[in-house]
């Protein structure tokens, strides 16, 4: 199988991508259930002609068959005119969260004493890894125009492509006959249509995993999966559920496995990202380089990224914002051994000391969470999980994979396909 | 229930009722003309109040709220000029929840309620103690533990809790009688910013809704009619017939001053308190029920009195925990003061020294046709005094919990100066 060349992920949630011959597997829901605007957005989502290369669409990186996540294990995707421009961050899944992402906020207790004594004052919300977009249509504009992604050089250029698309008449019907006479407005409407598709189409939130069936009383978790959930929940053990919320809502809503808050976990630097060849380049999340509002002035937020949902994470091949890890097992081991055996994860500096949290400049490394279990351990201590525990947690996390994604994985495994 | 407990629950209240009846009979005979009473002792002459509105706000010192330069001038100046300022009103604990429980149930602080019950866990009772205190630990009191709401219903009177934002996000809490699933995490501990699914966000906090912590309320079908979203208040104020005898109003985490800034971007703190009161107090004061025989009580759960000293590694925080009115610690804290706790946070090493179990001085403001404008009372009161006062007003002479504490003074002629 030829390798896909993929458009880069610069700012994104809605990214593009996928070049060449491997067709995107499109599995969205029935168009008859969509509003006209959402149906139009669906066509835009899959339209490769909207990119400079002519080979990438939103669905290329956010492949429906991969839970609207990346179709491969590359830490970043490649875009631009010739698909050689690298993105900056790993592609997140679009499933489940889009309707629920709160606007970016940083709530504080008014009382100065409570600010010091209450434990949770981290910011939350906003789209993308750094939360800098408060609406999906604002976010969608960026990959369309980013030189690392779809690489449209102007709204005029993009509007022209839209006006010659097969759905141009639908576009005019929705937004007016002369909509393409106003390129900026046409592009704005295109992003609103994308938003409508992502919000309305049921394929973005199928709730078809074994875990969902279990919550509905339609399936049983195995003893191993239940052990894994217990370890996942235990605040003195994995403590995963403190951020990746996994309880039923008051109205029976199934959990999203994220609290939308920001966290610095100190993921090791990933030298496979081309930008990281520059030793002075750091991706600081809330502090930039892409975020340019007041958030970047809060130095205690440098290195914080938004907590992703863990739904379908067991089907991914690339983890964390910098795509440093390529197996979920490795991620779990990292969490429990980051501090007990840091030499396993970080390089040793010229002074012979392990450079913990080396994907942040030294001045920002104190922002990394070292207080919440299991990240509160010390060198040489026993990790909170042993191999069996990790097997159990993995078994639980696999129950979060949606039926369509799991089926595809199994089919690939049987046919010996690889990525 | 053993015989002693039955005797405690049936005979003691009866005796108290008899004594109370005698007391108030004598009082009626000996009552003095009401007058402005700054510095004078209470003169418990009861005006014929039949509609009470409690507005519960958050975490402010008396001096910050009512002192010179207050950023809540509508409260500190406009309303104070119209009503009675209680300069020596105290909260009964830190943090929030224990205060609300004291206001409506008379139960003292315990380890969990003092920490705001991040898990909405059942209270496991292991015994009883004097003054109707239940011994044990947990958050949601068993059905045998009553509230003012139960007393009102037993007396054939009506009540409602009006909770701003309740039900905005039904995955967090329902729109009536809204609380987390019992024995699960309380997701309302954090304010939720606006999102596509929840356009207004959700800043309802269960811990500021006292009724939710009593099975004697939440297990009743009536809870769904009586604990409702604040929106309902405007409708209910339209006539005397639709206005409950007792209304407990909790603004959201922004408008009660807890947060600043807020999840929806509003300023919060005293600024938002001021705006909220400007919006709602005139509505109440213009209502037929208030004009006829109303009383508005604007109070705060706890004070913010304390001291913060920055250190080389973080900060030393001293919480005074001052109290009045011979407040008792109760049977469940079991702490030896001062208490010193240390924790590491993003702000460094925080050492918190708590000197006592009280809630510090907040002040309170009362408005009523039975109060002369500009009244000031320097008589000490606390949340147990408030509960006892409400019981007296509604002719209930069975005082719950520490509202029945020997010698506790209810609101009297020092306040009701227009009667």
What are the SSEs and their pairings?
The complex is a heterodimer of chains A (419) and B (419).
Chain A (H helix, E strand, L loop, with lengths): L35 H10 L12 H4 L16 E2 L5 E2 L25 H6 L18 H10 L9 H9 L4 H8 L7 H18 L9 H6 L7 H11 L28 E2 L41 E2 L21 H10 L49 H12 L4 H13 L4
Antiparallel strand pairs in A: 1-2, 3-4
Helix pairs in contact in A: 1-7, 4-7, 5-7, 9-11, 10-11
Chain B lengths: L2 H28 L20 E7 L4 H5 L6 H10 L1 E3 L2 E2 L6 H9 L5 H4 L9 E6 L3 E5 L10 H7 L4 E5 L51 H4 L4 H4 E3 L1 H6 L9 E5 L18 H17 L2 H6 E7 L5 E5 L3 E6 L19 E7 L2 E7 L9 E4 L7 E3 L3 E2 H11 L26
Parallel strand pairs in B: 1-8, 1-9, 2-15, 3-16, 6-7, 6-8, 11-13
Antiparallel strand pairs in B: 2-14, 4-5, 9-14, 10-11, 12-13
Helix pairs in contact in B: 4-12
Task: Describe the protein's architecture and organization.
The complex is a heterodimer of chains A (419) and B (419). Chain A has 419 residues and is mostly helical. Chain A folds into two domains: 1-205, Cytochrome Bc1 Complex, Chain D, domain 2; 206-419, Orthogonal Bundle (Cytochrome Bc1 Complex, Chain D, domain 2), CATH 1.10.760. Helices cover 28% and strands 2% of the residues of chain A. In chain A, the strands form two sheets. A two-stranded antiparallel sheet of chain A has the order 1-2. In chain A, helix 5 packs across helix 7 (183-200) and helix 9 packs across helix 11 (387-398). Mean pLDDT of chain A is 90; it is low at 1-26. Chain B has 419 residues and is an alpha/beta fold. Chain B has one domain (31-304, 361-404): Alkaline Phosphatase, subunit A (3-Layer(aba) Sandwich). In chain B, 26% of the residues lie in helices and 18% in strands. In chain B, the strands form four sheets. In chain B, strands 7-6-8-1-9-14-2-15 form an eight-stranded mixed beta sheet, sandwiched between helices. In chain B, strands 10-11-13-12 form a four-stranded mixed beta sheet, with no helix packed on it. Chain B has a two-stranded parallel ribbon with strand order 3-16. In chain B, a hairpin with a 3-residue loop joins strand 10 (306-310) and strand 11 (314-319). Chains A and B meet through helix 3 of A and strand 11 and strand 12 of B.
